[in-house]
Write a structure and sequence with these properties.
It comes from Cercospora beticola. Helix content is 40%, strand content 19%. With 345 residues, it is an alpha/beta fold. It has a seven-stranded mixed beta sheet with strand order 1-2-3-4-6-8-11, sandwiched between helices. The radius of gyration is 23 Å and the shape is globular.
Length: 345
């Protein structure tokens, strides 16, 4: 849930819109309606919109540029960066979903159709070009720096900068009819910044096909290549998959999920030995935060939720870590280290 100080900081940077009746039209169906909405754009039809779902503490970011296939320009990229940086400060955040907003009537759906060619044509110097492309990188990095998993909900085109933003997310689900590509060489520029993530995802050979040949692939091929984790038939399938993934993420230990993302980021650019040591450090840290309350509670939870008659082994101090359902645990037989308990619900 957003704190007032966070909203005030956002308000100083961009105009913040309230959730008045009739202001918000949901950009995709969802079973849970969010209770808070702010937009970092002064125009509700363009920019970044954020829905925040209080009960699950999940933010959904929508890229909105409906008349232009949701392409991103410097303004939208800056808004995305700022929004992600503010979300990163929310200690209660559990997950983020990134999606493309609705496209104009008669236009094909689009996740992010790429960077604004008109703006790139206006770049008049190497310094201008460096500033623009650094803005793309900052937006991608802000997504990667979010301390919780980010899910890309992809319906339609994901091209150029759009694909770079997509691969900056942790999990990706797309429709069969979505299209993916890196066609920059067709317009006389190389694919850069977060295109560097592609070889780790799909290998150097397939990356060369996308970058050298400007190939466009569909959702099924993207799944085969490992560019997306799941492919579904339509937008309803997207909503169902995203909802399932978010629900599962919210069942996990909130501190552990943040630790796991930190490790995943570390593993990308360290040696195996360094990655192993980083994992040892994070494992120890799990038992340091709040006195190790989270692992102790979450280790017991599956057994408490199990069927009556189940037998489990817990440390002798189990009474100090079983918070819920402890009255249903009946001590069976002590061992040297542990007690055997029977679940009698």
């Amino acid at each position: 849930m957003y704190r007032n100080s966070q909203l005030l900081r956002l308000a100083r940077t961009h105009r913040v819109l309230g959730c008045d009746a009739g202001l918000w039209q949901p950009f995709h169906n969802t079973r849970r309606r969010c209770r808070n909405l702010y937009s970092t754009s002064s125009d509700i039809s363009n920019g970044i919109q954020c829905q925040f779902e209080k009960d699950r503490r999940v933010a959904t970011l929508s890229i909105n540029n409906p008349k232009k296939m949701n392409i991103v320009n410097s303004s939208i990229l800056s808004q995305l960066t700022t929004t992600c940086e503010e979300l990163s400060k929310d200690q209660d955040l559990r997950a983020v979903v990134l999606t493309g907003g609705p496209t104009a009537e008669g236009k094909s759906p689009s996740f992010i159709g790429g960077a604004d060619i008109k703006e790139m044509c206006s770049l008049s110097s190497p310094e201008d070009a460096r500033t623009f492309i650094t803005g793309v990188h900052k937006a991608c990095q802000a997504l990667r720096d979010l301390p919780v998993p980010v899910i890309a909900r992809v319906d339609g085109f994901s091209l150029g900068a759009g694909l770079e933003i997509m691969v900056s997310c942790d999990l990706r689900v797309a429709t069969q009819e979505s299209h993916f590509g890196m066609p920059e060489v067709r317009v006389g520029i190389p694919s850069v910044v977060e295109a560097a993530l592609l070889p780790q995802l799909i290998g150097f050979g397939r990356t060369r096909r996308l970058l050298y040949l400007a190939e466009i692939i569909n959702g099924l091929q993207a799944k085969e290549w490992g560019l997306v984790e799941e492919v579904v038939q339509d937008a309803d399938g997207l909503d169902q998959t995203v909802d399932e993934w978010v629900s599962r993420l919210c069942e996990m230990g909130p501190i552990a999920i943040r630790q796991q993302k930190r490790l995943m980021m570390r593993w990308e650019d360290c040696s195996v030995a360094e990655g192993i040591q980083a994992g040892i450090d994070e494992f120890a840290l799990a038992f340091e935060a709040n006195g190790g309350q989270e692992p102790r509670e979450y280790m017991v939870r599956p057994f408490i939720q199990n069927s009556p008659g189940s037998v489990l082994m817990l440390p002798r101090d189990a009474s100090s870590i079983v918070r819920e359902g402890s009255e249903a645990l009946e001590m069976r037989a002590p061992t040297s280290d542990c007690y055997l308990y029977s679940l009698s619900l």
